[in-house]
């Protein structure tokens, strides 16, 4: 059983959903990323999604695009992200970590090299935004061989047959993109999310995480009543941008946001 599976099963047995924060590695610095990972766990994070800076993050809105640009300006690369996870594991051997990014950096490193290094560092899952399930045969076996859960996105427009296929190939959890558009876009329609989750669960037994549109404790609580996991990204990354290089404020305010979300999710009937 992977750390991801163990975490989600444990929470389900408690009647709770997972809180999954996303931050872009290297923004505002790699040292701060490592400190934030530990601080977020203490604030209630159950799984961490760590973004790999990329020059063309097509699924991301302006907030995360800007974070990628800031990290790339500091020369942060995929190898640095893997090294960050390795350092995190020196103190935390339990919290699952998912690397989230795009195909190009992994292709440049080489799938086998990447998978071996990620496994050695203690990475648990890999979500490559532009890796479609129809074209995943070259990547998924490599990830599986190194005990890395391949995680796939599901869109509001994904037909049942495609959802079923993703459920067969994916592991860990499925990531339902609750909005049509990029990260940080629009507002959340909870009723539409509920309907789509019912359709997804008719096709797979994998846990379903919901991301895009989770802005505050109230929206986290609403989605937490429906999903196995709640992913929050842009709300955190925008706070990092707002606070700039005030590291103390970042280490105080981001965990506070997550703590409010965790409390609201746990209090929600």
Notes on the protein architecture:
α2 (30-42) packs across α4. The protein is globular and about 45 Å long. The relative contact order is 0.17. The protein contains 12 helices and 9 strands. The chain is α/β, with parallel strands linked by helices. It has helices at 3-13, 30-42, 62-73, 78-89, 103-109, 111-121, 140-145, 160-169, 190-201, 217-224, 234-243, 247-267; strands at residues 18-24, 48-51, 97-101, 125-128, 149-150, 153-154, 174-177, 208-211, 229-232. Strands 5-4-3-2-1-9-8-7-6 form a 9-stranded parallel sheet. Mean pLDDT is 93; it is low at 181-185. It has one domain (3-260): Aldolase class I (TIM Barrel).
In brief, what are we looking at here?
This protein has 269 residues and is α/β, with parallel strands linked by helices. The protein is built from twelve helices and nine strands. It has one domain (3-260): Aldolase class I (TIM Barrel, Alpha-Beta Barrel).
Overview features:
single chain; 269 residues; alpha/beta; TIM Barrel; nine-stranded parallel β-sheet; globular
User: Any idea what the radius of gyration is?
Assistant: 17 Å
Total domain count:
1
- What percent of residues adopt helix (DSSP H or I)? 40-55%
CATH fold field value: TIM Barrel
* Amount of beta strand: 5-15%
**Structural shape:** globular
Provide the CATH architecture: Alpha-Beta Barrel
**Residue ranges: pLDDT <50 for 5 or more in a row?**
181-185
The strand line-up of the biggest sheet is 5-4-3-2-1-9-8-7-6
């Amino acid at each position: 059983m992977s750390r991801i599976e163990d975490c989600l099963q444990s929470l389900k047995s408690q009647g709770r959903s997972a809180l999954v924060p996303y931050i872009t590695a290297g923004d505002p610095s790699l040292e701060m990323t490592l400190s934030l990972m530990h601080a977020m766990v203490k604030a209630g994070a159950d799984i961490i999604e760590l973004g790999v800076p990329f020059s063309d993050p097509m699924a991301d809105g302006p907030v995360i695009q800007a974070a990628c640009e800031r990290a790339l300006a500091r020369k942060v690369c995929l190898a640095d992200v893997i090294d960050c996870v390795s350092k995190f594991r020196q103190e935390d051997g339990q919290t699952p970590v998912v690397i989230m990014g795009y195909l190009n950096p992994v292709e440049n490193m080489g799938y086998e090299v990447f998978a071996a290094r990620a496994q050695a560092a203690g990475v648990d899952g890999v979500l490559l935004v532009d890796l479609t399930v129809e074209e995943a045969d070259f990547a998924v076996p490599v990830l599986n061989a190194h005990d890395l859960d391949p995680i796939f996105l599901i869109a509001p427009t994904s037909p049942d047959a495609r959802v079923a296929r993703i459920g067969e190939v994916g592991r860990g959890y499925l990531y339902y993109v609750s909005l049509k558009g990029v990260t940080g876009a629009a507002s959340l329609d909870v009723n539409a999310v509920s309907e789509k989750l019912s359709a997804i669960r008719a096709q797979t037994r994998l846990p379903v995480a919901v991301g895009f549109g989770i802005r505050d404790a109230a929206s986290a609580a609403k989605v937490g009543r429906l999903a196995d996991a709640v992913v929050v990204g842009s709300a955190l990354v925008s706070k990092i941008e707002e606070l700039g290089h005030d590291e103390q404020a970042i280490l105080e305010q981001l965990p506070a946001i997550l703590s409010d979300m965790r409390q609201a999710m746990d209090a929600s009937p």
